[in-house]
Design brief:
single chain, Wheat Germ Agglutinin (Isolectin 2), domain 1, 2 domains, two-stranded antiparallel ribbon, 3 helices, 12% strand, elongated, acyltransferase activity
């Protein structure tokens, strides 16, 4: 039995079939990467719309791209993370909390440490 697989590419903007001249456009904004399939006409419109921003921007390539980060609270100019963890573990042990020598420190212990050491 024969099998035929047909790959159909659809323009993500207007829903039309892309039979010739289309392209997959990759772009990134605020640390999030996107990919969109566009006909030649819509790819041209996309590039034209971004042109003034691209001309004014600094080009970043490869591993230099900024990454999106998530943080629950700012760390300011505190010590390095490993020094913070060592201090938290020492404080927790001295104050009756059970913490392992390695691994995650519970939010309960972290909160208690921060409250005790607030300036």
């Amino acid at each position: 039995m024969a099998e035929r697989v047909i790959r159909q590419v659809i323009d993500d903007i207007d829903g039309t079939d892309i039979t010739e001249g289309g392209e997959t456009v990759e772009f990134s904004i605020r640390g999030v990467a996107y990919r969109i399939d566009l006909s030649a006409q819509n790819a041209s419109k996309f590039e034209k719309a971004l042109s003034p921003y691209v001309k004014a921007a600094e080009r970043i390539s490869g591993d230099e791209r900024p990454r999106a980060t998530r943080s629950k609270r700012g760390r300011g100019n505190k010590k390095s993370a490993s020094e913070d963890l060592s201090a938290i573990r020492a404080w927790a042990s001295e104050n009756g909390y059970s913490v392992s020598p390695r691994g995650r420190i519970s939010s309960e212990v972290r909160t208690a440490y921060e409250e005790a050491n607030a300036q």
